Amino acid sequence: MNWDQLYADRAKLMKTSEIREFFKLTEQPEIMSFAGGFPSVDFFPMEKVAEVMSSLIEEEGRYALQYGPTEGNVELRGYLAEKMTREGIAAGLDNILITNGSQQGMDLLAKVFLNPGDMVIVEEPGYVGGLGAIRNYQGERLPVPLDADGLRTDLLAARLRKLKKEGRQPKFAYIVPNFQNPTGICMSLARRRELLALAQKYNFLIIEDNPYGEIRFEGEPLPSIKSLDTEGRVIYLGSFSKTFIPGIRVGWLVADEPLVQKLACAKQATDLCSNSLGQRVAYRFASCGYIDAHVNTLSERYKFKRDLMLSCMEKHFPAGVTWTVPQGGFFIWVTLPEGMNARDLLLKAIDRKVAYVDGAGFYVNGNGKNTARFAFSEACPEKIARGIAILGQLMHEEMAKFLKTA
Fold first, then answer.
1. Which of the four pLDDT bands, split at 50, 70 and 90, describes residue 203?
2. Residue 294 φ/ψ, nearest 5 degrees
3. Inter-residue contact 236 to 96 (CB < 8 Å)
4. CB 92 within 8 A of CB 82
5. Is 28's pLDDT higher than 90?
6. What is the pLDDT of residue 405?
7. Alpha carbon distances (Å) from 358 to 22, 292, 349, 369
8. DSSP letter, residue 75
9. pLDDT, tens digit, for every residue of 386-396?
10. Mean pLDDT throughout 267-280?
11. Nearest-angstrom CA–CA distance, 291 and 390
C-alpha cells in the first residue's frame, strides 16, 4: 500500500516526537536517565491505591467499570469546581470538562479553534506535547523567547504590532507558566499581567497549562493567569498526573460554559468519555484531602532531588556551562557554550550509560542545539550523584576538544 497518497494533508504534518524516540534508548534499565519527565514510581502510594480500588469495586463497581458522561464524573467535577474557586478561579460544575490528562485538553482546543495557517504564540523553548498538538492541526507556531521571568512580553508586543500592520493576529497563546517544561522557569506576576493585557488588546485567547504548579519547593504561589481574567479569555488545564498518579489519565479543563459544551462535542467524537474508574479513584483520594497532603510530601521529596542535582552540577560541570534553578516542578535547563552540540554529547553520554534530553526538540525552528533538559524527578539519588559525575567528566573532555578547535 502507498499510504502517503491516502493520508489527509494534516496527517502528513504529524511527526513522532524526537524526545519520545530517544526514550527508547534512554529508558533502558542500565541507563542512568534524566530524560523522562516522569513522576518517581517510588512515590506512588501503592498500598493506599490498592485499598481504595478494592473498596471502590466492592461499593461502586457497576458504575466505576461502565461508560460515564462525556463531561466527566459529576462528583469529581464538583470537587474540581470547588478547588478552582479556592484558588481564585470562579468555576461551577458546567465550567469543568474531565480529560485524559491535560494533553487531551490541548488537543481538543487545537481541534476546535485552529484552521490551517492560524497563528499560535508559543514559548521557546516550549513543551513538545503542546507544540505537536498545534502542528497536527496545521497551526502556525510563533515562538517567543523566555528569560528568567518567563515569556518575553516585550518581544511579543513588538511582534503583535508588526502582525497587526500586516492584517494578522494569533488565535491563542499556549503557556506553561509554573516551572515550565522544559526550563523549570516560573513566569513572574508582572509578565502574567502583561500577557493578559496583550491578549485583551490584540484579541487572542490564552491556554494556561498547569501540571507542575503545586510541586513548589520555595517561594509563594503566584496567582494563575486564569484567576486574573475577567473576560473568559483564559482556558485553564490541570492534571492529577504529577500530583497523584499518571496511570489513571485524569486531567481537567476550566472554561466558559459554551466552550465546555463545544469541547464536549469534540470529545464525543474522540473517546466518548474519560476513564470512569480513574475518575472515581481520583475523587476518593482528592475529596478526603489525601492528594493535598500527598503534594506536600512530594514537594519535600522532589526538592531533595533538585538540591542534590544542583549541588552535583556545581561540583562536576565545567565553567562555561550554566543552568536554571527551578523553584518547583521536575526540570533543570542546561546551556552549553555556544557552538557545542548537546545531541552529540548525548550520544557519547549514552555510551557511558547516562542520558538526558537535548534541547533542539523543544524549539520550533531547530534552534537550541547547545541546550538540554535534565529531569531530576524520576532518578533515585544514587543515580543522580553518579550520573552527573560521569556527565561532568565527559563535559570536561569534550569542552577541552571544543576549545582547541574554537
1. very high
2. -65, -40
3. no
4. no
5. no
6. 79
7. 10, 33, 11, 7
8. H
9. 999 999 999 99
10. 96
11. 36
Looking at residue 296, what is its pLDDT? 96
* CATH 3.90.1150.10 for the 15-37+292-400 domain, yes or no: yes
Residue 58 reports pLDDT greater than 70: yes
In the chain, the N- to C-terminal Cα span, in Å, equals 50
Cα dist. 272→233, 262, 327, 375 in Å? Answer: 27, 14, 38, 34
- For residue 403, pLDDT over 90 is answered with no
In this structure, are residues 225 and 254 in contact, taking their beta carbons and an 8 Å threshold? no
What number of residues does the chain have?
406
Give the H or E element holding residue 311: helix 290-316
Q: Which three cell numbers stand for residue 384?
A: 543522580
CATH topology of domain 66-288: Aspartate Aminotransferase; domain 2 (3.40.640)
Query: So where are the chain's domains?
Result: 15-37+292-400, 66-288
pTM, to two decimals: 0.96
Question: What single-letter amino acid sits at 68?
Answer: G
Q: Answer yes or no: are the C-beta atoms of 98 and 77 closer than 8 Å.
A: yes
At 335 the three-state DSSP class reads strand
Confidence at residue 113, expressed as pLDDT on a 0 to 100 scale: 98
Distance CA 63, CA 49 (A): 18
Cell numbers for 19, please give them.
524526545
The predicted model gives 62-71 an average pLDDT of: 96
Burial class of residue 62, CB neighbours in 10 A (0-12, 13-18, 19+): exposed
Q: How many helices (H) and strands (E) does the chain have?
A: 14, 14
Q: How far apart are CA 341 and CA 359, in angstroms?
A: 10
User: What CA–CA distance (Å, rounded) separates 260 from 71?
Assistant: 8
